[in-house]
Specification:
This protein is mainly alpha-helical and 214 residues long. It folds into two domains: 22-131, Endonuclease III, domain 1, CATH 1.10.340.30; 153-212, no CATH class. Helix content is 66%, strand content 0%. The protein has twelve helices and no strands. The chain has helices at residues 3-11, 15-18, 27-38, 43-55, 61-78, 85-103, 109-112, 117-125, 132-140, 155-163, 172-186, 193-212. Helix 1 crosses helix 12, helix 4 (43-55) crosses helix 5 (61-78) and helix 10 packs across helix 12. It is globular, with a radius of gyration of 17 Å. The two termini are 35 Å apart.
Length: 214
């Protein structure tokens, strides 16, 4: 087994798959999870909170709006997501409402109506509570599925790519080009570029925790 294959087997599972989400069939569920991941919160707590949404049947825009703010806050508490519970409840309600008002509740329309990756990202950024980090998390696992999903890597991915000798690029655009070239040359059967990115994210998070340790 090569080093890359070993790293992919350890760290390459898609975050959506870890949560039992098929992003091609249920992109709204992945959007919910991405919003939770995008906040400054422990990833385990974010995962537990998404699973609490699922247990409570809050996996559609309509269900979230019908639940209301107090119900969402209780669900956040159930998942251990208490630091931003009220603010995130506001965000989730606003996202659900805008999606229903502007896109008939169909998150796929964000991609279908966009003419470029930039336009898709701009549409996502119009939602209150969705910032650049959440956009990257969300679109990363839709790359190759949605025609306009082609986000630039986050700093976390770039940290890992540099550590592994994949790139020395100083811009996110050049880093993405280097990552794509590396994967095209070294790809492993049974994995795709999204698994490669998930691997880099997990390694980058691990490296960042090490760097922050006293």
């Amino acid at each position: 087994m090569s080093k890359l294959e070993d790293l992919l087997s350890k760290y390459g599972m898609l975050f959506s798959e870890e949560l039992g989400i098929d992003v091609s069939r249920k992109p709204f569920q992945w959007l919910l999870a991405s919003v939770l991941f995008g906040m400054r919160i422990n990833t385990t707590i974010a995962k537990n909170t998404f699973l609490a949404y699922k247990r409570n049947g809050l996996t559609t825009p309509e269900a979230i709006l019908n639940a209301g703010w107090y119900k969402l806050v209780r669900v956040h508490g159930e998942g251990g997501y208490v630091r931003y519970d009220g603010m995130t409840a506001d965000y989730m309600l606003d996202i659900a409402k805008k999606l229903l008002d502007d896109y008939d509740g169909n998150v796929r329309k964000l991609d279908e109506l966009s003419k470029s990756p930039k336009e898709l990202e701009e549409r996502l950024l119009e939602f209150r509570g969705i910032g650049p980090v959440t956009v990257s998390i969300f679109l990363r696992e839709l790359r190759g599925i949605w025609k306009n999903a082609d986000p630039l890597p986050t700093n976390v991915e770039i940290i890992a790519a540099r550590k592994l000798g994949i790139t020395k690029a100083k811009t996110r655009e050049k880093a993405l080009d280097a990552m794509k070239r590396f994967w095209k040359k070294n790809k492993i059967k049974g994995y795709d570029f999204r698994n490669f990115e998930a691997m880099l994210v997990r390694i980058g998070l691990k490296l960042r925790r090490t760097l922050r340790a006293p």
